[in-house]
Amino acid sequence: MKKKLVFISMFVSILSSANIKEYRPNYELLDKYKLAKKIAGVMQEYNYVSPFYSKTNHSELVGVKIGDISYSYNNKLKDYELTISKNISEFLDTTTLKKYYQKLNEFYILKDKKKNDYKEIIAAYFEYILANIELNNSKNIYDNAKKSTTVYEKAYALGNISEIELEKMKLKLKYIELEYMKNEINLKNRVKMLDVLNIDKSSIEEDDINIYEVEEKDIRKYVDYENEKIDVNNNINYYENLKNRIDSFMPDIYLTYSKNKKDSEFSINVSKTIPLIDSKYIDNAVSENRKVFSKIKYQDELKIYKLHKNILDISKNEYELAKKELEISKVELELGKISELKYIEKLEEVSNKEIEMIKNKISLSKYILERE
Predict the structure, then answer these.
(1) What are the C-alpha distances in Å from 93 to residues 19, 90, 248, 253?
(2) Which SUPFAM superfamilies does UniProt cross-reference here (predicted)?
């Protein structure tokens, strides 16, 4: 699978068809649910319908309640009753606005849950790829170290090297063997995590870490989404604080209207609970949530993307340079200019540079996938 690294204007091109994307939630379908939450936020109590039925020796009631409106019919008395009751203080103390944003926030909570689930899959997916590469590299180093140890043992038997040199090589082999065993255990743990998340490891491709490209619209969509969510949470805090301040002195004002076959009735009920000792106003002022979440900027996201990309480019160059140095070391080893131990250390250095590059690839790919 070939992928081009293209950067035209700000962000260009399309994400390659990596297997990891098969686990991506259908955000587009979920986004349609946002409108339903907005409508429910406007309707509030009127979004809920509650049918009811009751029967006694003297009556048989069947009815329905929608928000503040209740209608019932007495089958035995052949009479009905319509009741409308509303606390109009909720309009004055911003309760309705707070409830609207709380309902809308349910959408963001749900979508963030899906996003976090996807992030967990992405992390497990890439950690498995990294663990595989680490194990393969440590096995290669271990195999070479065993051969080098054999060479040292023969050289020691011939009197060409000292006992200290041999012991250093054996100690190095032991360290490399432990690293190899550690990577074996790590890979098994990564496989277990894949099983927990129901990820088929046979479908995972190492090339999936090479997702270097992102569309400008995806970054802008991510920024817009995060800022919309911030606005909603700031509004919840604002109207909650405002409601608490108003509630400190605002009474409850209930307007009630009821009607049946015979007559109708309209009433106003005003009440206020006043503490004798402490102060609700002071309590609300002290406990007020003064958090104001800052919005993120597109240019900042662009800088983060460029930073990831530049770090990756540097680590790729370092890895390529380390590979060239390894080729030189191989020739020097054959010519007897360096020891087997030095060559093994050079192998480790190349492996470390490769792992660092892989981690940077994963970091960039995760950044892009989490914003797609």
Answers:
(1) 52, 5, 10, 11
(2) Outer membrane efflux proteins (OEP)
Total domains, the chain? 1
What confidence tens digit (pLDDT) does each residue in 57-97 have?
Answer: 878 889 999 988 999 888 877 888 899 888 888 777 788 89
Q: Where are the beta strands (DSSP E) in the chain?
A: 49-55, 60-66, 69-74, 79-87, 252-260, 264-271
Instruction: Please report the DSSP string for 328-349 in residue order.
Output: HHHHHHHTTSS-HHHHHHHHHH
Is residue 77 in a domain?
Answer: no
Q: What is the pTM of this model?
A: 0.79
Q: What is the pLDDT of residues 347-365, one digit of tens each?
A: 999 999 999 999 999 999 9
Give the CATH number of the domain where residue 215 resides.
1.20.1600
Q: Could you tell me if residue 228 is inside a domain?
A: yes
Is 299 within a domain?
yes
> Is residue 320, in this structure, part of any structural domain at all?
yes
Name the phi and psi angles at 60, rounded to 5.
Answer: -140, 105
254, 85 contact by CB (below 8 A): yes
Q: What is the pLDDT of residue 345?
A: 94
